[in-house]
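During the no-cost extension, the postdoctoral fellow (Dr. R.K.) reprocessed legacy sequence entries with the updated structure-token encoder. One reprocessed record is reproduced below for audit purposes.
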Amino acid sequence: MIESKHVKQAVSWAPRSIGKRDAGCQERALAVAAELAESENAAARWVGTDAMKELESRTVRARVSDKRVMLLPKTGKRARQAPGR
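Re-encoded structure tokens follow.
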């Protein structure tokens, strides 16, 4: 893995962004981040711990738990429903 600070930050955006979609994605993103955090590679460890810090924060957990996901009729595609609806 490349040790550049900017590359590490860009790579850590992927699991952080995916983990903010819904609770299921958050679980999977945290699992990947935990695996990276245990890596022997220093850059991979940094990416994993950086992603875990944000995904385990109170703010992100509250935001993800408030999101409701429902299926659209006939299409079976997922549609987000605004919290409180």
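The helical segments are 5-19, 23-37, 42-55, 58-66. The chain has one domain: 5-67. The remaining legacy entries will be reprocessed before the final report is submitted.
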